[in-house]
Amino acid sequence: MRVYITLFFLIILFAIAFIFGSQNDQLLSLNYLIARVEMPVAAAVSLFTFIGFILGLLTALLWKMVRAVRTKKTKS
User: Fold this and answer.
1) Within a 13 Å sphere around the CA of 52, how many CA atoms are in the beta-carbon half?
2) Contact 41, 24 (CB under 8 A)
3) Staple 17 to which of 3, 35, 49, 63, CB 3.0 to 4.6 Å?
4) Number of CB atoms found within 10 A of residue 45's CB
5) Which residues touch 49 (CB under 8 Å, ≥6 apart)?
6) What is the pLDDT of residue 33?
């Protein structure tokens, strides 16, 4: 049941990001340390939503691994 609720909220999040991005067709200028790029707001929203999703997933997996190692150490 937890997986379905999580999947539901992810779909809602991506739908909101898509709606927001499709309504904003202006160009956005992003300045990096070594480069500068202009992209539509929709592409920037999609990019940063994806990056945030991946970072959150990696953080959750790392936290789960740390908990598993701690549990294994206490059992030994």
Assistant:
1) 10
2) yes
3) 49
4) 19
5) 13, 14, 17
6) 86
